[in-house]
Amino acid sequence: MDDTGWNISRLLQLVPYTIAEQIWNIPITAEVQDQIMRKDTSDGRFATKSAWQLVRTEHTIQAVYGMIWSSIIPTTVSFFCWRLWQGLIPVDVVIKRRIGSHMASRY
């Protein structure tokens, strides 16, 4: 340990010089107990909500989804429409794209 509080020789064994330099420029003091602080919360404490916000991927909701997943449409029909929208129903166009030939019903 030197006057900054860091063990510089040990630090240089673990990380490249440029990173070690950035680390030893961080002042530390023995008078304050270490604690973990989170940047994604206002008080620095862990919260499940903040962890969820950090890992989830937000997508804009398309208007078509409101029509597909309407409460007046039966769930089975909603799933069928969603699969059709995602290209998961093997209609002629999709089959042609997958196998590279036309269906017998077309020609």
Automatic annotation (TrEMBL):
InterPro entries reported in the protein's UniProt record: RVT-Znf
Protein name, as recorded: Reverse transcriptase zinc-binding domain-containing protein
Q: Which organism is it from?
A: Abeliophyllum distichum
Note the superkingdom of the native organism. Eukaryota
Ranges for domain Reverse transcriptase zinc-binding: 46-98
